[in-house]
Amino acid sequence: MTDSSKRPLAVFDLDNTLADTAHRQRFLERTPRDWDAFFAAAPHDPPIAEGVALAVESARECEVVYLTGRPERCRPDTLDWLAAHGLPEGRVYMRRNDDRRPARRTKLEILRRLARTREVRVLVDDDELVCDDAGRAGFTVVRARWSAPSAVLEAAQEQEGRT
Fold first, then answer.
1. What counts of helices (H) and strands (E) characterise the chain?
2. How distant is the alpha carbon of residue 22 from its chain centre?
3. Which residues contact 96 (CB under 8 A, 6 or more apart)?
């Protein structure tokens, strides 16, 4: 049962929703993929104006939380990036370092867990498969289509469970 005394949640993805990862995709285009370099470059992601504006606007009525496929080891850099770009404070849900399940599975699991006690007003994500599954599960979804889709990032999310 949800707690109606608390503000609803607005759940935001990070990569290619709030943070532009285009500059670091080159690390995933090589064989083998250089995951350490890919994540080490994340603090240099430029913010995506459309996503940041939506997060700030959502914070007026909702508690903003972040749901990312980034591994837990990226938490300090991620928290610093959110603060540096003026995003609303909020809890950050990250993948365990050893969790290689597809993003759509890990994110839907967390969304369902959140929805047990709180109203999830919206999920904002760029991953079409995550959006499709969340929509089928009854969540309201905003598809973050303000970044160019990346086949290499999609493969990383779905086949390698890395982001």
1. 6, 5
2. 15
3. 71, 72
pTM of the predicted protein model: 0.90
pLDDT value at residue 4: 66
Task: Report d(CA 22, CA 7) in Å as an integer.
Answer: 34
Can you tell me which residue has the tokens 């104006």? 49
Alpha-carbon distance values, 110 to 18, 35, 141 (Å): 19, 24, 15
pLDDT digits (tens, 9 = 90+) for 28-79: 988 898 989 999 999 999 999 999 999 999 999 999 999 999 999 999 999 9
Please, what are the domains in the chain? 9-158 (3.40.50.1000)
Nearest partner of 144 among 50, 68, 23, judged by Cα: 50
